[in-house]
Design goal:
The strands form 19 sheets. Strands 2, 4, 6, 7, 9 and 10 form a six-stranded mixed β-sheet that branches. Strands 43, 45, 48, 50, 51 and 52 form a six-stranded mixed β-sheet that branches. The protein folds into eight domains: 230 residues, Macroglobulin (MG2) domain (Immunoglobulin-like); 85 residues, Immunoglobulin-like (Sandwich); 106 residues, Immunoglobulin-like (Sandwich); 92 residues, Immunoglobulin-like, CATH 2.60.40.1930; 146 residues, Single Sheet (S-adenosyl-L-methionine-dependent methyltransferases); 109 residues, Immunoglobulins (Immunoglobulin-like, Sandwich), CATH 2.60.40; 221 residues, Glycosyltransferase; 142 residues, Immunoglobulin-like (Sandwich), CATH 2.60.40.690. The chain is globular and about 105 Å long. It is mainly beta.
Length: 1407
């Protein structure tokens, strides 16, 4: 053990120049930009006062302060640290007179950014909703942070398109409030709000955009969290209540099974069904577990089905099982025992839930057993036993004396009332091991909190002469004092008042010097998480629909207050949008300090507190160890912010208060059913608060109101608990509608009338159709219905007190859009009217089209053009959706869609590359065009890393790669070449092992034939590459890419180039020629010119666009069927030709090709499949290098016809060049004329979609759906798939990879449990669902002609819909999307199943 000086943590030796006495200088181990840095300087023992200089030094900050410190005292020195440059900083202390010394320690440098929080008003939005959000910037004191640099906010959609950009955002007291209006047809999925400061991403918050129906009630499970198996039973209460607080009647299906933490369904699943009226009780037997050696927790899952509507809501909980009834733990024990010397040993006895066992007559037994042979054999029978009673806090105190001199270690066993535990070991005191008696800090305050004095004891086995205590919190010293201790005392109590900067945790560091040695101890105190500001919202507990409500808000003056009020149903659907107290306090942990790294081991000052100590006192610390593990102290890692507190928001407050309704008997119409109610900002609260008066919506529910207050002095506060306002009336009508129905379907509108009066009432329910938005129908028999030309229909119903009854009206919606259902219920005692909107969508299958034009104003001041929407006459009426958009940067959408480039799914070794290569291209693109987008670069590099690691899982031992890795018999030549080429390109941006590339190229050389050809030795999904010339050219690209290895493989390359040069004369296959052209250009071979000339001769030209296609040219009517669907192979051939041309021609010459290529992109910026996207992007990127992109300014004016609407204009400039600026045009638009003026380049897109109700004209697959008989709530369809090649030459070939998309009929959702049955079918590789489980997607690795594969698809009914429109099943080729078949199937749905009472005609009379 070395005795050395502790001098900071680099353990340097101090220069002891005539020092007579001891000093210590304590400071945080971490120095931070823009913050205070406090140093505590103490003189312990000295002859007189000392003059000391304390300085901080580093690349951008050097400051020295001088102080005089008397002996036996402590002084604090405060530095204001400015913004620091990165580098090494030191804390140095120098004694100039009195004690003369110089000592220094290196510091950690940290540049913590202020915390950023994003709050949205909801977690999930519907199309056409308004998204409201606030962004808060907080400093380390939770006050509004000062942000000097420009702030920008970007909102991206589910496909990562940049939809809106707020630049140069200005904060009000640290807060920015913004909004975004969603369109009628937004991209569904996860949207994101990203906040950047000076281009660096600080925080992002995601929200969902989805089509959903709000839950009307909540289910909870009450059960003990901890159960003893000996009790033989787990009891649970299932509670269900509506959001307005009343009980739900229905049935609960409750299951219980062992929860292994992964998908494993155990044999012992128990299922019970109970009736629920607000609550229901179940008991599960656990006798069978009594002898189990291992008992994982039990998961209880309850589904409550509401009697009136069949709506379901679920809840789950976990119960921990225990073999022992009591837990016995050490409470207070010494580290060591002295022979024959009495010591105190305390244990705590707790119940399984952690609460102390109190008032028990039984005693605790403690047994000490010889533990020398701890690891070799069972416990021995011989032990020393002690007994003690349990006090009122569950603590048993023993006085123990051990006298066996032979025993060095004892194992300690404790028993209480049948429960036994081994609670540890205790060793005999060894003088060598102990350096000194330990010093301890004992906290006396049970729950330390703000506003209450905190006390702690400092105790030692020896006398304490004096001590210095220092409290560090949030990275700085907040309190430091010198304490004199009366002579002979071994304990001293310190009391202090906590300050807000000690929350949530602070560390006490105590030290003193005695006999030249430094004694010290550290302890962390956790404080209650309380803010120094406060906000309190008082609101009425209940209200009537549309009532004016007054909220009273109390908070510190001069605060910014943000309020938020939403329907509780929204929170039941999804929460996590609101600010959370825990997140805010957790974010303060990043300010913790830590000591610089040091070698060695043992306990040292600062280990817990992160403080460095400069001193000339001795401290034994072991550095001669071999252990070099770094001690990462209080890791100052920023916490990932995850919003978890449930409470979201509502709509901005506006408009004058309305007048009270006149008191007539006509029920007031309830028609305002927003999901959010309040989203209100008060940016300067005067006095101690304000009041807000606002009309509450008409929904019968509870509104949840939360708020925050942000104050420049006292910081932030959140409401402790949300305020709930229940909106209720004793008699009301409610509907249970699906998200949408299709036009022309018959739907039974379920209407529920609730009567919470204390009398039974007879009510008349009327549905009013005076606006003729739909037809009433009634079922004459199971399939025929007749339209009834009535303006209103009436049903009569008797509703008992405190219950509900449901009736239904059958209607057929006539128009696409939103249909208003007007429903009134009246009774002698009360009445209610609601106007509820039903969303009606067009029938048929949606077709997407995209026309894109590249505009370059390099040589001309303006360009005019017109684009037409070719919507066929047979398109479903009112199904059109038309948009005109502009993006300044050619590759803009690509940058926004790094992880979503291809519209189709992917998964195998070949498709994984699409997750990989575009990222390389984007990084290359950013580099060449000189664009700085750090966030995109980081994201791209991250994806490269993931893609690289993922691809390696498809590697064979011989260095080759295949689609499904080692489960394939051999590696693929094509895929290996592709991977080698891509890995080399990626090597510039991420770590790629050169050995991996070498192994792959060696594999390729090993397979080369004498002729120079590279044959395919594995299996390929995409058959178009299976020709020798194309494949050999493709492999050559991999060798040319690895340019530094060309000398190594020279002979192999020359052989292959010779082979390609000879073969090109023998073929007219455009695909092979195009790749060969690139390979020959790279080889600088004279044949390249010839090949390009040959390709030039077969190019297609139309309207200033040029491309290549293997498909026969079509003329006349048929030519219009497919041309908008990108034909996968054409994109690939054209891209290769473009790459070859760009090797030698100026970029402008290639513009017609670029224009065609861009017109083939889908609106995500990719092409329709993997290979196209990669080669297409490579060509576009190369073009962008040559032309420059995304720079310049232009105005684009456009006008749509036939409506001849007014002229609108879009401005493009470098600031917004990546934003997709979109205008939705009228449904009748068929043409857009636009003119662009200015400079630079841009891309214009004219995107439209419409529905078609017919099948494809030329399918290559056959799909046969058969609907099976099944119970009425279940749908079982057998769908058989077969590949039928169109071309003679393909008759014996398998198809490429195929994808089947099965749309379920309206009202049905996929049954997740049954997906496994589909996956079990041969040739099926993967199954998933999308669009809220309403579509099932199945991937086949390939299909063989004549080999039929049938899939069992199951779905369950979620809503009452009949006469559903046929649902589609599409099967398409992943690589050649034109090969597609669509079939429709129809569910037998009897109108009699959904009609009720008088709606059911004679034919429906049930036997």
């Amino acid at each position: 053990m070395l005795r050395i000086f502790l001098c900071g943590f680099l353990l340097q030796f101090a220069l002891l120049i005539n020092a007579t006495g001891f000093y210590s200088v304590v400071g945080p181990g971490t120095i931070r930009s823009n913050s205070k840095y406090n140093v505590a300087v103490s003189i312990h023992k000295a002859d007189g006062p000392s003059h000391i200089k304390v300085s901080l030094n580093g690349p951008s900050f050097n400051e020295t302060k001088e102080i005089e410190v008397s002996p036996m005292s402590t002084k604090n020195v405060e530095f204001e640290v400015p913004k620091l440059a990165t580098g090494d900083y030191n804390l140095t202390a120098e004694g100039v007179s009195g004690l003369v010394f110089r000592n220094t320690s290196k510091l950690n440098y940290a540049n913590e950014k202020p915390s950023t929080f994003v709050q949205t008003d909801k977690a999930t939005y519907k199309p056409a909703d308004l998204v409201q959000f606030r962004i808060l910037f907080l400093d380390e004191n939770t006050r509004p942070a000062k942000i000097e640099k420009p702030i920008s906010v970007v909102i991206t959609d589910g496909a990562q398109n940049r939809i809106k950009q707020f630049t140069d955002v200005k904060l009000t007291k640290g807060v920015y409030s913004g909004e975004l209006q969603l369109s009628e047809q937004p991209v569904l999925g996860t949207w994101k709000i990203s906040v950047s400061v000076d281009g660096e991403n600080r925080e992002s918050k995601s929200f969902e955009v989805d089509k959903y129906v709000l839950p009307k009630f909540e289910v909870t499970i009450d059960t003990a969290k901890d159960v003893v198996i000996a009790d033989q039973v787990i009891k649970a209460t299932i509670r269900a209540k509506y959001t307005y607080g009343k009980p739900v009647k229905g049935k609960a299906t409750v299951s219980m099974e062992q929860n292994y933490g992964y998908d494993y369904s155990s044999q012992e699943k128990q299922l019970k069904t109970v009736d629920v009226d607000g609550k229901g009780h179940v008991e599960f037997d656990i006798k069978y577990l009594q002898n189990s050696s291992w008992t994982p927790p039990m998961r209880i899952f309850a589904v409550v089905t509401e009697e009136l509507t069949g709506n379901k809501q679920n809840a789950s909980t976990t119960v921990n099982l225990h073999q022992e009834r009591f837990k016995i733990e050490n409470f207070e024990k010494p580290e060591h025992f002295h022979l024959n010397k009495s010591f105190v040993y305390q244990v705590a006895v707790k119940n399984v839930d952690g609460s102390p066992v109190t008032a028990s007559a039984k005693k605790v037994k403690l047994r000490f057993e010889n533990a020398q042979y701890y690891f070799s054999g069972p416990p021995t029978e011989h032990g020393i036993d002690f007994e003690a009673p349990v006090n009122e806090n569950g603590i048993a105190t023993f006085s123990i004396t051990l006298s066996d001199s032979e025993v060095k270690y004892y194992r300690v066993m404790a028993t209480f009332d049948g429960s036994q535990s081994t609670i540890g070991t205790i060793g005999k005191f060894q003088p060598v091991m102990e350096v000194r008696d330990p010093l301890r800090i004992q906290l006396n305050t049970k729950t330390p909190r703000l506003g209450e004095r905190v006390s702690f004891d400092v105790t030692s086995m020896e006398d304490i002469p004096y001590f210095v205590y220092t409290i560090v919190a949030r990275g700085n010293i907040v309190l430091s004092e010198y304490v004199d201790v009366p002579e002979g005392d071994k304990t001293y109590t310190v009391k202090f008042f906590p300050t807000f900067d000690m929350v949530p945790s602070a560390t006490i560091y105590i030290h003193y010097v005695i006999n030249d040695d430094l004694h010290f101890e550290e302890k962390t105190i956790e404080f209650e998480k309380e803010f120094s500001n406060s906000i309190d919202i008082s609101a009425p507990v209940s209200a009537k629909p549309s009532e004016e409500i007054k909220l009273q808000v109390k908070t510190d003056p001069d605060s910014f207050v943000g309020l938020l009020g939403v329907d509780q149903s929204v929170l039941l659907l999804k929460s996590g949008n609101d600010l959370s107290r825990d997140d805010i306090f957790n974010s303060l942990n990043k300010y913790k300090t830590s000591t610089p790294w040091q070698r060695g081991y043992g306990k040292y000052p600062g280990e817990t507190s992160g403080l460095v100590t400069l001193t000339n006192a001795n401290y034994p610390y072991n550095t001669d160890a071999i252990l070099y593990h770094p001690l990462i102290l209080n890791g100052a890692f920023p916490m990932a912010i995850a919003f978890s507190l449930a409470a979201p928001v509502g709509v901005g407050i506006a408009g004058p208060p309305t007048l009270p309704p006149s008191l007539t008997q006509v029920p007031q119409v309830r028609k305002e059913f927003p999901e959010n109610w309040i989203f209100y900002n008060a940016d300067n609260v005067e006095g101690d608060g304000f009041s807000l008066t606002k009309k509450i919506p008409d929904t019968i529910t509870s509104w949840v109101v939360t708020g925050f207050s942000l104050n420049p002095t006292s910081g932030i506060a959140l409401t402790k608990n949300p305020s709930k306002i229940r909106v209720f009336q004793p008699f009301f009508v409610s509907t249970n509608l699906p998200y949408s129905v299709k036009r022309g379907e018959v739907i039974a509108i379920p209407v529920v009338i609730f009567n919470y009066l204390d009398k039974t009432v007879d009510a008349e329910v009327v549905m009013d159709n005076s606006d003729k938005e739909y037809e009433f129908t009634e079922a004459t028999n199971e399939v025929l219905e007749k339209a009834i030309d009535e303006v209103r229909r009436v049903k009569r119903v008797t509703i008992p007190a405190n219950s509900g009854k449901s009736v239904s009206f059958m209607i057929r919606p006539k128009n696409v859009g939103s249909t208003t259902l007007k429903i009134t219920a009246t009774s002698p005692l009360a009445g209610d009217t609601i106007h509820q909107k039903l969303k009606v969508e067009p029938e048929g299958v949606t077709q997407f089209e995209n026309r894109a034009v590249f505009i370059n104003l390099k040589d001309q001041p303006e360009v005019s053009q017109s684009l037409e929407a070719e919507i066929p006459a047979e398109a479903v009426p009112q199904s059109e959706f038309i948009e005109f958009s502009v993006v300044g940067d050619l590759l803009g959408p690509t940058l926004q869609n790094l992880d979503n480039l291809v519209r189709m799914p992917y998964g195998c070794g070949e498709q994984n590359m699409v997750n990989f290569v575009p990222n390389i291209l984007v990084l290359k693109y950013l580099e060449v065009t000189g664009r700085r987008m750090p966030a995109v670069e980081t994201k791209a590099k991250k994806f490269l890393e993931i893609g690289y690691q993922r691809e390696l899982t498809y590697k064979h031992d011989d260095g080759s790669y295949s689609a499904f890795g080692k489960s394939d018999p051999a590696g693929s030549t094509w895929l290996t070449a592709y991977v080698m080429r891509s890995f080399h390109q990626a090597g510039k941006y991420t770590d790629v092992d050169p050995k991996v590339v070498g192994a792959g190229l060696d594999f390729l050389v090993s397979k080369q034939k004498e002729s120079g050809e590279f044959p395919e030795v594995g299996k390929l999904f995409d058959n178009s590459n299976q020709n020798a010339l194309a494949l050999t050219s493709f492999v050559l690209l991999a060798f040319f890419e690895n340019d530094e290895l060309i000398p190594k493989y020279q002979s192999s390359i020359e052989k292959a180039v010779r082979y390609v040069a000879e073969e090109v004369d023998k073929t007219d296959d455009q695909y092979s020629l195009a790749i060969a052209a690139v390979a020959l250009q790279l080889a600088k071979h004279p044949q390249a010119e010839k090949v390009l000339a040959k390709l030039e001769g077969v190019a297609r030209n139309e309207n200033d666009r040029k491309w290549w296609s293997k498909a026969p040219e079509t003329t006349g009517e048929n030519s219009r069927i497919f041309h908008w669907k990108p034909r996968s192979n054409d994109v690939e051939i054209t891209s290769y030709v473009l790459l070859a041309l760009l090797e030698k021609e100026p970029a402008e010459k290639a513009l017609p090709i670029i224009k065609w290529l861009i017109s083939q992109r889908n609106s995500n910026g990719g092409f329709s499949s993997t290979q196209d996207t990669v080669i297409g992007l490579q060509a576009l990127t190369k073009f962008a290098f040559k032309t420059g992109s995304g720079s310049g300014n232009m105005d684009i004016e456009f006008v749509s016809s036939p409506d001849g609407g007014s002229k609108e204009s879009i401005a493009v400039n470098p600031e917004n060049s990546l934003v997709l600026q979109t205008h939705v045009l009228p449904k009748t638009t068929r043409k857009v004329d636009f003119t662009a003026k200015g400079s630079g380049s841009a891309m214009v897109q004219f995107s439209y979609r419409y529905n078609l109700a017919e099948k494809e004209k030329k399918p290559s697959f056959k799909v046969t759906p058969t609907v099976k008989d099944s119970p009425s709530q279940l749908l079982v369809v057998d769908i058989c798939a077969e590949y039928i090649p169109l071309e003679e030459g393909d008759k014996d070939k398998d198809s490429n990879m195929a994808v089947m998309e099965i749309a379920l009929p309206s009202g049905y959702v996929g049954d997740a449990d049954s997906l496994g049955k589909i996956e079990a079918v041969d040739r099926v590789k993967r199954v998933e669902t999308k669009n809220a489980d309403s579509t099932v997607v199945v991937y086949f690795d390939s299909l063989t002609p004549g080999d039929v594969r049938c899939l069992p698809v199951e779905a369950s009914k979620a809503h009452a819909v009949a006469k559903q429109k046929p649902a589609s099943v599409s099967l398409y080729d992943y690589y050649d999307t034109e090969r597609k078949a669509t079939e429709y199937y129809q569910v037998k749905s009897s109108l009699c199943d959904i009609c009720e009472g008088s709606d059911c005609g004679e034919g429906c009379k049930k036997a």
